[in-house]
Amino acid sequence: MAEDLGGRLVQAFNTTTGIPASRVNLKWGKGRTGGEDISTAEAGTISLEFTLLSYLTGDYIYRDAALKALSALSKAATDLPALTISRETGNWTSPYSSIGPGVDSYYEYLVKSYVALGCSGCLAHFYRVDKAVQRYMDQDGWILDVEIQSKRIASGVISSLAAFWPGVEVILGKTEDAIRHFSRFYSIWSRFSAIPDVFSLQSSDLMHFGREYPLRPELIESLHYLYHSTHHPLFLSIASLITSDLLQARVKCGFATIADVHIADRYHDLMETYFLSETLKYLDLTFREAETEYYQAAKAMESLLEVCVLRGEKELSMGKWVLTTEGHLVPVLSGLHLFDMEIVPVFRSQELTCTAYSAVEIAGWVTDYSLQDIYSEHKEKRRNATLLTRPSLFVHNQPIDPSLSLLRVRLPRSQVLLTLSKAAFGTSFPGAAVLVPSTPIHACGVLANEVRGKVRTSQVVLVERGECDFVEKALSVQAAGAIGLIVVDDRLANSALITMVSPANSPRVHISCAFASFEDGLRFR
Amino acid sequence: MLDSLASVRSQRKALRSMFDHAFDSYMTYAFPADILHPISCSPSTPPLVPLFPPDFILGNYSLTLIDALDSLLVFNRYRDFQTYAWYLSAHLSFDHNIEVSVFETGIRVLGGLLGGYVGGKELDLDVVASR
Q: How far apart are CA B130 and CA A127, in angstroms?
């Protein structure tokens, strides 16, 4: 199967420069659409797959195609690779360089081709480029796009795809740099409980596009490598928080793309394949490593009864694999010298130097780069965010008939619009809110609810009709700190929605109040 | 130490149930299509005009399953791995008049098949040969 597919894909590499076509027709070969430019990442990300395919089949056409493409990229190289390259001329066709989209996995494959395939030329080339990245692109731990000629910063936009970078640094033994860069990316996650595709450093906020989080793995991949190399417990704690953050994407039939990291419960109806192949895999590999470590420690202290830990199945041991940019297994073949790239101009190949760091040094960096603080903020936010698992509602801003004082709301994951009637007192409803049931149910007197502050959306309390005046209920809810109140009718028989009014001389209510029928009340529960 | 061990194990259990929910939903509602729409619980339709997703990733080759093959191994679902690897060997075809991204198909489909092959072999699971 793999060879069949490889044969179809390799046709794209049949060009004068060796730089492949971007697209291929599975049945007929080279694609007809698409320009002659291709992104650097697309051209330079096939060496692991093609070399493994050659190794398994004995047909070296695949490896040679990957090698030719990588060599063409290294020939074009100034000190920094551009975003795109022409497959006709082999020259760069973009004035900009980045570690994010356009180039990202090219860097990753230079390093991983060294580790898995023994390509020392790849490593040498990476180091050469890395020098320029550090010198021109790294601004206070944020790695920004530059214009190659002038070396000026071209944009202050951070792409979530670039979050793979600390992982590559870990592989190279640059742990301190990895922690520094990771803390920047993680500060974005901590703020939104997800990492938006695009984040603007200038405005320190989201932009009008790229607000989604399609459950991408890059930050988690870096986290995995950091835990792997340091075994610092903070990275494990971060992995736990991220795991629970991901639950916000859980929907009826899978996990959905979060459409806007700023708004709860809004999704795109799509589950990307890398959620299974990478995001969950890297999290499990992280916890698996911790499990092994704690297990051995517990065993060493003889605090574990052997009978408890008999494992029925053997697990895939992860030591001998390199994971591709899609998280797939490639065995380490480097002893076989299957793959080496000629570097032009000739560059003395540089070996990977691994340094062992002490736990004290690592703890120092974790503090230096505020990772502990970012984590604490994240944790605090996460604690509050448990509310998000409760039902929420969206208010449709176009009232069906303003004179009727009716309000249409929608519950998440439901297409049904419910009609509520607005009270004669109080303020207008917010666009979205989290619904929490009141304790006690009638809300006459002080609420036992712990109503916490604003967490993305604010809280509206559900209360049952009866026992006391509507205004009294509203004042109790207001005193508890919520922003709204929905009173649910306590009888099925009442056919019309009533408008709640307050007796003369009642204290002013400054939260939003509405009334729902008995049946609709059932949907809220 | 025992507390840490127990907590890490419960984390793994939670992750496993997330994986099961995502993967089993794909198998139930979308397979053999490429991609699952998790809110409408429906499969992606084969692209006559490949517009969405914009990356030319759809190729009518059960993309999500292939991409998840070695994850089935990581999450210890060996029997399912065998069943689906067998299914793919019998039914998978690339003979479709569909234009795909060389990059995306290379990393997701070729990488997925190879990863499943070498991983299954490592665990002595009876995988059909890749050639």
A: 36
Phi and psi, residue B44, nearest 5°:
-70, 150
Per-chain mean pLDDT for chain A = 83
A interface test, pick of B13, B17, B18 with most A CB neighbours within 10 Å: B18
**Adjacent-strand bridge partners of A250:** A255
The answer to whether residue A315 is domain-embedded is no
In a domain, A169, yes or no: no
- Of residues A32 and A164, the one with the higher pLDDT is A164
* Cβ count near A364 (within 10 Å): 14
A273·B118 Cβ contact <8 A = no
- Residue A405's domain comprises 390-524
Show the tokens assigned to A508.
């002013």
Sequence spans of domains, chain B: 2-122
- Is A502 within the bounds of a domain? yes
Q: How many domains does chain A have?
A: 1
- Beta strand A484-488 pairing with A512-516: parallel
- A58-84 pLDDT, tens digit each: 999 999 999 999 999 988 867 899 999
What's the CATH number where A502 sits?
Answer: 3.50.30.30
B106 interface with A at CB cutoff 8 Å: yes
The rounded distance, in Å, linking the Cα atoms of A4 and A392 is 49
Tell me the pLDDT tens digit for each residue of A428-442.
Answer: 776 667 777 777 778
